[in-house]
Amino acid sequence: MADDLRKWRFTDDRGREASGSGAPRVVAYVRAAAALAEYGLHPVAVYGSGHDDPAAPDPAKSGGLDLTAVPYLGRGADLEEARLRESGADLVVDVTYDGKAAYAVAEPAADAAGVPVAALGVGGEADLGAIVGRFAALAAALGAGTHPGRGELAAAEEELRSTVARGRAPRALALSPAGPDQVHIARPATWPELRRLTELGLPLADPGPGAGVNWRTVGWDALRDIAAGNALLLTDTRANATPRAELAALPTWRHLTATATALPWNPELPPAPGAVAAFLRTVAAAAA
After folding, report:
1. In sequence order, what are the residues at sequence separation of 6 or more whose Cβ sits closer than 8 angstroms to the Cβ of residue 153?
2. Considering its fold, how many domains does the chain have in total?
3. What is the CATH number of the domain that holds 33?
4. Is 32 among the domain residues?
5. Residue 114: which domain range?
6. 241 and 131 within one domain
7. What digits encode the pLDDT tens for the residues 240-280?
């Protein structure tokens, strides 16, 4: 009875307020759902982005979320009012990159279904710690307790900081393979988790001038020159990037990985302590 009477209220990063009573039934973008799951808040359904398969969620974005235990509603942009009503959702949780629009969900469908959308900022200018903190605040508003791995993120940050401080920090380059003809190279300053790596002492190479705010797109031959001298290659593991098994057939990739270590990097890392800490520990181990 006490849970049924509990009131919850939350103002998202666009200044929009959502509220209700009892434990809310949440439908969420997979990345956001994975973050909330770390706090013990499991959605009644999840959906993907325009980059995702309409029939199956992207495992790279799911963190510790059990995708076999939650229905997948397809791409959020295709989500229909009737499907959202059928889910019984009280709240949709998404992310926003510009502080204005939800990234993945079709907000008109949510509006028509009478379900509020809470969108939390994950844009390039946002501090990684602040992003994680906002999801923690949402989880607390929805009734979650303290994160079970409290202190885990701080410990992982210190591990990476200490590792790179002990010797000459290896240079790293972050990239997203896009088939046999081109590759997207990340601009580190526009990605919160990459910027945090540099703050902890790990140098990340910038791809240089060219079109693209978050990425510079080049051919594989051009990548060979840009990546020269980088010991770590942070490589996009999302389903829309070229799989590692296919990269093995590319001469440039074979050349680069003969002297550099390729590490998994998820540009849509679940913004929660456990997922971020695991990423930092992976980088620390490779940098040791």
Report:
1. 132, 273, 274, 276, 277, 280
2. 2
3. 3.40.50.1980
4. yes
5. 2-141
6. no
7. 999 999 999 999 999 999 999 999 999 999 999 999 999 99
Q: In what order do the strands lie in the sheet with 117-121?
A: 72-75, 45-48, 26-29, 91-96, 117-121
Instruction: In whole angstroms, give the CA distance from residue 89 to residue 82.
Output: 11
Q: Is residue 146 part of a domain?
A: no
- Residues 172, 207: one domain? yes
| Residue 56 DSSP code | S
Selection from 164, 196, 159, 188 nearest residue 281 by Cα: 159
Non-local (6+) Cβ contacts of 49 within 8 A are 29, 75, 76, 77, 103, 104
For the beta carbon of residue 236, count every other beta carbon within 10 angstroms: 22
- pLDDT greater than 80 at residue 190: yes
Tens digits of per-residue pLDDT, 100-133? Answer: 999 999 999 999 999 999 999 999 788 999 999 9
225 and 277: one domain? Answer: yes
Domain boundary among 101, 118, 141: 141
The alpha-helical segments, DSSP class H, found in the chain are 2-5, 30-37, 81-87, 107-113, 128-141, 152-166, 192-199, 220-226, 244-247, 251-257, 273-287
Q: What is the dihedral of CA 241, 65, 28, 7, to 10 degrees?
A: -160
Rounded to a whole number of angstroms, the CA Rg of the chain reads 20
Residue listed under structure tokens 């469908």: 109
List all residues 6 or more positions away from 249 whose beta carbon is below 8 Å from its beta carbon.
180
Distance CA(55)–CA(9), nearest Å, equals: 33
Task: Enter the tokens of residue 31.
Answer: 């990345």
141, 174, 192 — which closes off a domain? 141
Question: Is residue 129 located within the same domain as residue 179?
Answer: no
